[in-house]
Amino acid sequence: MSLRPLLARSVLSVSLAVASFAGTAATEYAFAAVPAPNVPLKLMSVAVQGNSRVPTADILQAFGYHAGDKVTRNELDASQKRIGELYSSRNVGTSLEERLRISGDGVAVKIILEEQAASAPAQPTALVLDKVAFQGNKKVSTADLEAATKLRAGGPVSNELLSADQQAIQGLYKAKNVGVSFQPQATYPNHDQHVVLVWVINEQDKAAN
Asked: What residues does the POTRA domain cover (predicted)?
C-alpha cells in the first residue's frame, strides 16, 4: 500500500519582495552661474555611501561614468534611474539621493543610499480539512474508523497527520483480522487551502499475514 502525498498542490510559496525605489537629486553651486541640464561638465569625483546589500562596484558600473568623463546633469539623472533599476533587479528596496557639487565646469557626485531591510520569507499557508469521509468500509464501521483516526473537519491537515491516520487504519483492520487496502484521496473544491479527504477502502476476507 502506498500513500499518495496529500499535498499534491504545494503549500510552500516563495515570496519575492517588491523592491521600492525613491530617488532625489540635490545640487550645490560654488558660483552663481547655473549650467543648463544639457551642458557638459567634467566629472571630478564620484562617491557611494550607505550601501551594504549591493556592492559599490556594481553601483558604479550602473552609474556608468568615471572621474575625468564629460557628463551633463540630464545624464546624471539617467544614471540615478539605472542605479534604481539595479536595486530592483536585486530585489532590494532603496531610497537614493544624488548630490551634485558644481564648481565652474566641474561636478563632484555623491550617491547616498538608504537600503530597506530584507523581507522575511513567506510562511507556508496551512491546509484546513473541511471534511473527512470513509468509502467502501463494511466490515469495520465508520464510527470505529473515526475513533481510531485523528484528522477532523475544521482542523489542520498535513502529510505527517495523514501518515499517522493511515497507520491507525491499518492497525484497526489488523486487530479485527480483516484484510484491507486503502488510498487517501484529497480534493480542493474551492481551489484554495481547504481540503476534502476521502479514505477509499477495499476490504478483504481476512488480514494479510
From this structure: 130-203
Q: Which three cell numbers stand for residue 56?
A: 559599490
Q: What is the CATH number of domain 21-115?
A: 3.10.20.310
pLDDT level of residue 207 (50, 70, 90 thresholds): low
Is 127-203 in CATH node 3.40.50.300? no
Contacts of 151 (CB under 8 A, 6+ apart): 129, 132, 157, 161, 162, 165, 197
Distance in angstroms between the alpha carbons of the first and the last residue of the chain: 14
Extended strands (E) in the chain:
21-29, 41-49, 70-71, 94-103, 106-115, 127-135, 156-157, 180-187, 194-203
* CB distance 43 to 67 below 8 Å: yes
Residue 191 pLDDT level (bands cut at 50, 70, 90): confident
33 is written with which cell numbers?
552661474
Domain ranges of the chain: 21-115, 127-203
Residue 20 has pLDDT above 60, yes or no: no
User: Do 21-115 and 127-203 have matching folds?
Assistant: yes
Cβ atoms 68, 42 nearer than 8 A: yes
Cell 561614468 maps to which residue?
65
Give this prediction's pTM. Answer: 0.47
